[in-house]
Amino acid sequence: MAVFCKSMAGGLLLTLSLTLLRWGVEGQRNTRGKKEVSGGATIYLGQDRDIWRPLIHITVNLSEVSSIKSSFDLRTFDPEGIVFYGDTKNGEDWFILSLKDGLPLMQISRGDSRVSVAGGPKLNDGKWHTLEVSNQDPFVILEVDGSNKMVVGMQSKETVNVLSGELRLALGGILINKEKMIVQFEPHMDGCVRRGSWLNLSVPWEVEAEELWPCYQNVQPGSYFPGTGLAIFNTSVFPMEADRGVKTELWGDFNKMDGTIFSIKAPGQKLMFALVANNNTKEITLTFGEEKICMKDTFKRLVITFQTNLLKVLQDEDESKTTTLPISPGSQPGYSTTWRAGRLAVGGLLGEEEDNVGSQFLTGCLEKIQVQGKDLDLDLAVKHMSISSHSCPA
């Protein structure tokens, strides 16, 4: 049931302690002051950094390589991102394994040949999958869970020389210019790798970050907001359609959220819209201009439709729990301008000043976010790197 209320509910949620849900990453420092970890450690690939920069990497002499196989476990809900990279000849010959549309994608450059192949099972189901990559010249083979195989054959006109020099391996990034790739993709991967066995090497990997973020032991699909940042889109990417407006749908356990779920504002104008959860009172407050609506019922889905002359709020597809607010130039000045040149923030309250990027950040999991019936990919937003775009702690 929705009721009009006089003020927005207050209160703060104590920071969620996830210590028992996460695997830490132990390590020590090398002589250059860089942290080192075992290649078999559990690594979260979506850590805050330059998105193309490797998270961990090693460089070894090829004379030390005694195996042609590498294997590891991968778990993700993310359909796209870089998993691992390897090269020789200082990047002249290289190999990249990533996901695109949830499928494994291999790209290989060797001598005067360059090839890419995608296929096999979709891997972004949130389950652990074992991947093995082996080089059986002239073939590169990717095996998934012991059976599904992709085989790439390559022959070069160049004379095959005995391999010498150095081999570089990297997780979560690449060491060449991304323009050299045949297939371009978004590199950031919200996923975890564990139990890595890399060419039977036992040397530690060097870490580019000061500390490695842990992986949650159990995850579920969704976008997780730890209370430290938000994701911002331009409202112009959501054009208002004359017949149905802009339809926004949110799924999740709203009783477990605290903070601003999303807000809309144009630069230089007052806040147009805000949806705020209060974990203390178990209320969701919707502010639209001067109007405020408090929703006290427990629900798992909220549908908010912005039309040219009406705002409609529907809980759990129950028409008896529908609230409508008429819109006129007098009641909502600047409404049309905001949709043409404003900002939509998920996970925080947009500030009054243009350089104030947000406050009252959300703590909680949005299991699904849709606009106009399509899933909203937070990787396409300007977002704080603490946000997990595709997974929440279960």
From TrEMBL:
GO terms for molecular function: androgen binding; steroid binding. It holds the Pfam family Laminin_G_1. The keyword Glycosyltransferase does not apply. Residues 1-27 form the signal peptide. One of its GO terms (cellular component) is extracellular region. It comes from the Eukaryota. Residues 40-215 form the Laminin G domain. It is found in: Secreted. InterPro entries: ConA-like_dom_sf (IPR013320), GAS-SHBG-PROS (IPR051145), Laminin_G (IPR001791). Its main location: secreted. Keywords: Disulfide bond, Glycoprotein, Lipid-binding, Repeat, Secreted, Signal, Steroid-binding. The keyword Signal applies. Functions as an androgen transport protein, but may also be involved in receptor mediated processes. Each dimer binds one molecule of steroid. Specific for 5-alpha-dihydrotestosterone, testosterone, and 17-beta-estradiol. Regulates the plasma metabolic clearance rate of steroid hormones by controlling their plasma concentration. Homodimer. This is Sex hormone-binding globulin.
